[in-house]
Specification:
By secondary structure, this protein is α/β, with parallel strands linked by helices. α4 links the parallel β3 and β4. It is elongated. The chain has 15 helices and 13 strands. α10 packs antiparallel against α11 and α11 runs parallel beside α13. Strands 1, 2, 3, 4, 5, 6, 7 and 8 form an eight-stranded mixed β-sheet that branches.
């Protein structure tokens, strides 16, 4: 009986194992990311989201299908860093072309497959200066070396002065067709389609989870456009100047904060902005809020503005291009600000929004009673003036104040000054009472 029970238990355990293992394998998908068109922060945000999901789902592999003529270097660097540091097997599938920034992304994968007629390379930076070429060439060489590929080939994709024997003469930028990518060791295999790729890497039949850009990532991509980023920085500067002009009403501060959040938030989702930029932005916003509740000092407001500007500078890349963008945006903001100050009060729109009627004395409006008729007249104090009290002139009692001294009741005084509703008196000289 005991033997029968033991055998039954073993069978149950084996059946459970058989049932569990296929489920576990089925829960580990192949992540397939589609990148098509120019590389921007939206594409980077897509990769960040997909790679996060790949780690959470314990994916078997990540395949990045790419077809791009290039794009923004900062977005490509963000993608490169995330892919090359991934603990999961990564495969790049060059569907048609991986040029410029796309070539850097392709080189960051452990495995590279290319479709017939595909190409990779042509990564000369724009503007082509000695500094930009040297920097990007180092990035390409380091990425290729890290992933076990020939750095010399990667460098020739950026620096046309190098050339590559048999593929590009010195003075020609290197771009490789599918068969050339195989012969130089840049690509591992030529595959016709998705099925052939999955079969080659032993993933055929496994569940595939596909990722494409959603509306948020498209919006992030739009915000990453250099013109849009410049416009956002201009709005931030203009809002700060408006806040100063309106003596801290809060409208300008709110607009500046909103613009900074849009700018930094888009770059953070793309993996371009880091923790320091977020700390500076949130710290700056906090200091501006403190300034609203502690008016007059200006210290918190100034520190908040400096922190937000520092966050923007770092977000834009903390380089000369970032400095130029901020400088141009500042000049535009100043120009727009002076135009608004000069012409907006005279516009029809402003006249419709602002009340022009004024309650003036010429139109019969008075804010306080007119006491000017009592200037120089004399009367008697009704109460003690210490220094304020009451006096009487021709039967009319008035609230008055002395010039500083205390005056007893029933003393003759003369009105020496009228300031609105404030009546100043002093004792009459040669008072014999």
């Amino acid at each position: 009986m005991k033997l029968k029970t033991l055998i039954s238990s073993i069978i149950i355990i084996l059946l459970c194992c058989v049932a569990v293992f296929p489920v576990s394998a089925a829960e580990s998908p192949v992540i397939w990311i589609n990148i098509k068109g120019e590389i921007d922060a939206g594409q980077s945000a897509l990769v960040q989201r997909a790679m996060d999901d790949a780690v959470r789902s314990n994916a078997q592999a990540v395949v990045l299908e790419i077809d791009t003529p290039g794009g923004l270097v900062d977005a490509a660097l963000s993608i490169r860093d995330r892919v090359s540091d991934s603990p999961i097997t990564t495969i790049c599938y060059i569907k048609s072309r991986a040029w410029s920034a796309g070539a850097l992304i392709a080189l960051s994968h452990r495995n590279i497959a290319i479709a017939p007629g595909g190409s990779i390379g042509a990564a000369e930076p724009i503007p082509t200066t000695e500094k930009t070429v040297a920097a990007l060439k180092a990035e390409f060489a380091a990425t290729a070396h890290k992933m076990g590929r020939n750095p010399r080939v990667a460098e020739a994709m950026v620096d046309k002065s190098l050339g590559l024997e048999g593929y590009a003469e010195p003075g020609q930028i290197l771009a490789l067709a599918d068969y050339q990518a195989i012969s130089t060791g840049i690509a591992d295999v030529v595959v016709n389609d998705r099925e052939a790729l999955l079969k080659h890497f032993g993933l055929l039949g496994q569940p595939v989870k596909e990722y494409k850009q959603e509306w948020l990532e498209k919006f992030v991509g739009w915000l990453s456009d250099p013109v849009v980023k410049g416009a956002l920085v201009t709005i931030i500067f203009l809002a700060i100047m408006t806040e100063i002009k309106t003596a801290g009403m809060g409208v300008g501060a709110f607009a500046a904060i909103a613009g900074a959040i849009l700018l930094l938030g888009s770059q953070w989702l793309a993996g371009i902005a880091g923790l320091l930029e977020i700390i500076l932005l949130t710290g700056g916003i906090f200091l501006l809020i403190v300034e609203l509740y502690v008016p007059g000092t200006g210290i918190f407001g100034l520190a908040g503005v400096v922190a937000i500007l520092g966050s923007i500078f770092l977000t834009l890349g903390a380089n000369m291009q970032a400095f130029s963008t901020m400088l141009i945006s500042m000049a535009l903001a100043i120009g727009i600000f002076f135009i608004l100050v000069r012409y907006l009060p005279e516009s029809r729109l402003w006249n419709k929004l602002v009340l022009k009627d004024a309650a003036t004395s010429q139109r019969g409006f008075v804010s306080t009673q007119d006491f000017s008729q009592y200037l120089g007249q004399t009367g008697f104090t009704v109460t003690k003036l210490r220094p304020a009290g009451m006096m009487e002139i021709n039967g009319i009692r008035l609230d008055v104040v002395s010039e500083g001294q205390f005056i007893e009741a029933d003393i003759p005084v003369i009105v020496t000054e009228i300031n609105g509703s404030r009546i100043v008196v002093k004792p009459v000289k040669n008072n014999t009472k």
